[in-house]
Write a structure and sequence with these properties.
about 25% helix; about 40% strand; seven-stranded mixed β-sheet
Amino acid sequence: MKTQELFSILEENKGKTLLFEYAPTRFVGANYHITEVKHITVDAVDCGAQTDSWKETIIQLWESPLEKSKTAHMSVLKALGILNKVGKMKPYVLEAEVKFEYSNTTFHTAQLFVNDFEIQDNNLILKLAVEKTDCKAKELCGVPEKIVEAAESVVEKVESCCSPSSGCC
């Protein structure tokens, strides 16, 4: 989801409560705070020695241990107020991918993509998910698109891709 799309969804649902589902049926606690907004520029080189660059907006969520008994989640209006204040200080790139950074005692720190959203009763639920890593240079490095069933074939392909003469990093 792009940053602009997130802001549009928030604007359309100002009167609702904001919940985050970080895994199926697992929600960020009501004691969460928005503790940081990062405007990131990624300059990357993939394993095929190809360069790429893009922008990301990363919003960090943190559960306050001092508020574990809290039962009311943050309102969309309050979250929007925080994000708008940040935008006045450091403008957003509205076409940037938006991610939420989150962890708790049972879930590792991760940058989660917004896969979808849902309205249930008076709640706006942002459905977050981890995206798997991927090789961006499959074609260049000769990595097959289909999953190879035999482990020997995988090892053989990886060794040929990663050899010094392969043209990959």
